[in-house]
């Protein structure tokens, strides 16, 4: 199978976000300070490792489909959906908010392209399912660092 331009562009968008997620995770990892530093420091390494592996899986899938992945820093900077991460030291609380937002943005891109990917190549959509599940789990776990035990949990819509 040879990827169409649509499939190639969709996977490139996922790839750019995963590369940027990896870079932002390391930036946070190196510069966080504050309460629960060590726990978040270690958790960020888990996120970085997953993002790197998912980026590699995406790029290799693209090559298997005769598409050309572009992981150059200039391409990633121009095309990622993740907000820019600040320079310098960052509190654990602020880092948590930013990392959760980055995880949710990466998942948002995957969900946005999912149906078109699935229509052309269900095998590649299966990869997206795996990535989404793990990144959403990370977002929940990181976000739990700042949640209060009185926080309400929204029940799924009953229709």
Question: Largest sheet, described in full?
Answer: 2 strands, parallel
Q: Which sequence of SSEs, written as H and E, runs from N to C?
A: HEHHEHH
**Helix- and strand-based class?**
mainly alpha
Q: Summarize model confidence as the mean pLDDT.
A: 95
| CATH architecture group name | Up-down Bundle
Poorly predicted residue ranges: none
- How large is the share of residues in beta strands? under 5%
* Counted beta strands: 2
| Neighbour order of strands in the largest sheet | 1-2
Name of the CATH class: Mainly Alpha
Gap between N and C termini, in Å? 40 Å
CATH superfamily: Ferritin, core subunit, four-helix bundle
The total tally of domains equals: 1
**For the CA atoms, what is the radius of gyration?**
16 Å
Organism: Pseudarthrobacter phenanthrenivorans (strain DSM 18606 / JCM 16027 / LMG 23796 / Sphe3) (Arthrobacter phenanthrenivorans)
Protein name: DNA-binding ferritin-like protein (Oxidative damage protectant)
GO molecular function, one term: DNA binding
Keywords: DNA-binding
């Amino acid at each position: 199978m040879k990827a169409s331009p649509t499939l190639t562009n969709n996977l490139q968008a996922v790839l750019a976000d995963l590369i940027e997620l990896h870079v932002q995770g390391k930036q946070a990892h190196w510069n966080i300070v504050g309460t629960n530093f060590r726990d978040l420091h270690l958790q960020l390494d888990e996120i970085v490792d997953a993002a790197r592996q998912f980026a590699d899986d995406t790029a290799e899938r693209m090559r298997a489909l005769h598409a050309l992945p572009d992981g150059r820093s200039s391409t990633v900077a121009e095309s990622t959906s993740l907000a820019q991460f600040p320079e310098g030291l960052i509190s654990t609380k602020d880092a948590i908010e930013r990392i959760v937002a980055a995880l949710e943005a990466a998942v948002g891109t995957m969900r946005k392209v999912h149906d078109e990917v699935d229509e052309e190549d269900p095998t590649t959509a299966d990869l997206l399912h795996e990535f989404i599940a793990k990144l959403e789990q990370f977002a929940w776990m990181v976000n739990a660092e700042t949640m209060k035990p009185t926080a309400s949990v929204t029940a799924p819509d009953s229709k």
